[in-house]
Each structure stands twice: as C-alpha cells, then as structure tokens.
Amino acid sequence: MKAGLDKTKIIEAAATMADERGIANVTLKVLAAELGIKSPSLYKHFSGGLDELNKELMLYGWHSLENIITKAAIGKAKDDAIMAICSAYRNFAAEHKGLFEAMQWYNMYRSEEHLQATRGMISVFYQVLDAYDLNEEQKVHIVRMFRGFLQGFSSIESHGGYGNPLSINDSFDFALRTILNGIHDLQMEAEK
Amino acid sequence: MKAGLDKTKIIEAAATMADERGIANVTLKVLAAELGIKSPSLYKHFSGGLDELNKELMLYGWHSLENIITKAAIGKAKDDAIMAICSAYRNFAAEHKGLFEAMQWYNMYRSEEHLQATRGMISVFYQVLDAYDLNEEQKVHIVRMFRGFLQGFSSIESHGGYGNPLSINDSFDFALRTILNGIHDLQMEAEK
DNA sequence: GTGTTTAGCTAATTATATTAGCTATTATAG
DNA sequence: CTATAATAGCTAATATAATTAGCTAAACAC
After folding, report:
1. Element (H, E) at A85
2. Residue B178, φ and ψ in degrees, nearest 5
3. Is residue A151 part of a domain?
4. Is residue A10 part of a domain?
5. Residue B102 and residue B54: Cα distance in Å, rounded?
6. Strand C nucleotides where any atom sits below 7 Å of a protein CB
7. Kindly report the CA angle at A106 between A94 and B142, in degrees rounded to 5?
8. Mean pLDDT (whole number) for A101-122
9. Grouped pLDDT means (10 residues each) for chain B, 192 residues
10. Is residue B19 part of a domain?
C-alpha cells in the first residue's frame, strides 16, 4: 500500500500516456510502470482489466470534452456560442489525440455506455440552439450535423489527413459558416 | 503449397471478417484458421505481420470506397452527383463497419500512406466540383467539409451513436442540403 | 529431369493480459 | 489503544497472440 492511487489518478495517467504515445501503446505493463506499481496491481482498481480501463478512458474523455465546451460557451449566445463550442471541440481533439482516439475507438460494439457518455456534451449543443427559433426536429438534425462534422474533421486533422496544413483554420471557419447559414435559413422560414 | 492464397485473397477474407466481428477481433490466428492455414504462414504473404495486414486493409478499404463512389457518380452531375457519392460513402460505411473502422483506426501515426490511399477518393470529389464555378481554395474547403462530415457522421451512425434511429436519413439529407446551399451561395457570388 | 523458389508447416520465443494466492499497510470497531 | 477487517500492493503462474527460426515439399524455371 505505497502508491496512493485511485481510479481517477490512474485514468488521468492513462489519458496523458495515450496523448503521448497513442492509445494502442497504453499497455497495462507500461502504465503500471509509469505509476510505479506492477501491472497485476491495476486489477485492484479495474477488475475488468484493460477493457475496463479503455471504457473509463472513453467516459473520462467525453466528460472532459463536455466540461470544456460548456466553459467555452459561457457569456456567449447564438452564432458566437456555436463557434466557441465548435472551436473548443476541435482544440480538445488536437490537444488530446490519444484520448480522442479512445473516445471513438473504444465505443465499438458497446453503444449503451457511449450514448450515456455523450449525452452531456450533446445537451450543450441543444441548449445553445434553444436561442434560435427552431423546432425539435430541426434541432436534432443540426446537432447531428455538428457532431458528425466535428468528429470527422477533428479526427482527420489529428491524423494529418488534410494534406496542406496552411488553411485548415479557414476550412473549419468555412464549414462553420456554412452550417450557421443553414440555421439562419431555417430561422427566416420560421419568421414567415 | 496447398491453399492457393495470395495477398488479395487474404485481405478480402480479413475485410469480411472485420465486418463480421470487428477489426479488433481479426487476429492472425483466427484469420489463418478461416483460410485453412496456420498463422505463421501468413508471414509469407505479410512479412510485416499484423501491422502490415492492417495497413493493407486500410489501403484496400479506401480503394474500394473510391471505386464505389466513382460508380455512384456515373451519369450524374452537380448536386445529383454530390448526393450520389455522399450516399454511396455512407452506405459503404454501414455495410463495411469493420473495414471502415480499419480505414480510420489504422492510420494512427502513419499519415503518409493514408494520404496516398485517400487521394483517389478525394479526386472524385474535386472532379464533381469542377462543374461548379468555384475557385481552387473554395473547392479545398468544400471537399474538406464533406470529408469531415461524411467520416464523422458515418462513424457515429455505424456505432449506434445517434440515439433515435428513425430520422437519420432525414438528418443526412438535411446536412447535405445545407452544404449544397453553401456551394450555391458561393456560385451566386461568383456570378456577380 | 534437375535445381531453385516459396508457401506451407512445426517448434520455440517473446510479450502482454490475466488469475491466484500472499502480505503488509491502512482503516475501523470496540 | 488494540484487535480485526479491508485492501492495495506484490510475486508466481497461466493463457493467448504475435513473431522468429528452421524444415519440407510442391510448383516453377531451365
């Protein structure tokens, strides 16, 4: 009973490690070494082993992202708020490549917990959209579009999939403006 | 020299298996068993082992997708062509969950080959966009937006990440219309 | 036909995850 | 405070997958 470890500390260490070496290189062995313990000891905290650790990493990641975009939206509304949370999302993915990987990668074949984990982040989008004159169905479509775009764009960008790095910011802005225009169009229809 | 295997046959078998059980469950052992050989024999075809197999799977996936969206665009132009290739992309992801996983998952820390692999698919988008009056920079932004959206949307959908399954088609249509409107707006500016 | 390549094999090695069982430290009941 | 219970850590052992080494026989080249 030397290293005063708990689940949280271990998950944070694993997240840091994932960002540094990639999620695939976070093994129980090397994680334990980093924490100054032996790998079997990790089972005292995660009886489900590596699998459970990955799941917790996924949950931790989505909760972190939720917090970050929530803070990004403070004091902002409408288009400003949307741009803020989208940028925060993108930055999070860029700064936490490994964790972001875990957030998507893990979810294979386990949608239940993943749905739960993303619920908080999604509700931030819905709250921001409440400031617009949109019906429920429209909001669903818009949130899904944002989620799809943000996840894909961030993922591609993180992996260096966008050849020319020069204007990625411009591409991101272009995309956000395009979606915002779509929202504005729905507004105009509603006002008729 | 019994089983007349070659790289292509092995990759196709691995792809099928990935779609059935998930990419993480495609092990050399079980793949070899499926092919009627022993796992060390796979090294005669892939000296790089599992790693190389995954890379080949990634390449195979992007080339397949390229072919599929190319065919989807035949006889179509402008908005029709775009909708066709986007739907084909989405369907491909839905029908090849495991392979699609490999296409994204693998690329971690190896962007070179991934860039090569996606080039073909990307050029299909550029060709379709040639029918519009857009400058090069605008095309870059639009293609990046499509890629981001399609990858993220398809990935989330495949993993059951969109809670209510009822209107996912509508959400997809909404998103495509939104992006197309963005393109049309650029057109109108160009005509001034 | 003889010689070479090579796709397959078995056996052995390495690496990781995981389980079992032990121990000492911490926490708790009295 | 002391006795007792939990538990975080350990070592040793097991299981499974990837990989390497070296062998063999089928296919092929001439």
Report:
1. helix A78-95
2. -60, -45
3. yes
4. no
5. 7
6. 6-12, 16-21, 24-26
7. 45
8. 82
9. 82 97 95 96 96 95 98 97 98 97 76 87 97 95 98 95 88 98 90 69
10. no
Report whether B174 contacts A178 (CB < 8 A).
no
Of A105, A156, A167, which has the smallest distance from its Cβ to B148's Cβ? A156
Hunting for tokens 């998507």 — which residue is that?
A104
Distance (Å) from the alpha carbon of B1 to chain A's nearest alpha carbon: 35
Instruction: Please report, as a single letter, which amino acid is at residue B91.
Output: N
Would residue B36 count as lying in a domain?
A: no
Q: What is the CATH classification number for the domain harbouring A70? A: 1.10.357.10
**Residue of B101, B114, B153 with shortest CB distance to A108:** B101
C-alpha separations of B101 from A3, A186, B17, B78, B118 in Å: 38, 34, 12, 29, 15
| Other CB atoms within 10 Å distance of the CB of residue A78 | 14
What is the reported pTM? 0.95
Contact predicate B34/B11, CB 8 Å: no
With 0-12 / 13-18 / 19 or more C-beta atoms within 10 angstroms meaning exposed / middle / buried, residue A147 is buried
Domain coverage including residue B171 = 60-191
**A27 in Cβ contact with A33 (< 8 Å):** no
Per-residue model confidence (pLDDT) at position B107: 60
A41-CA/C21-C1' distance, Å: 13
Total count of domains within chain A = 1
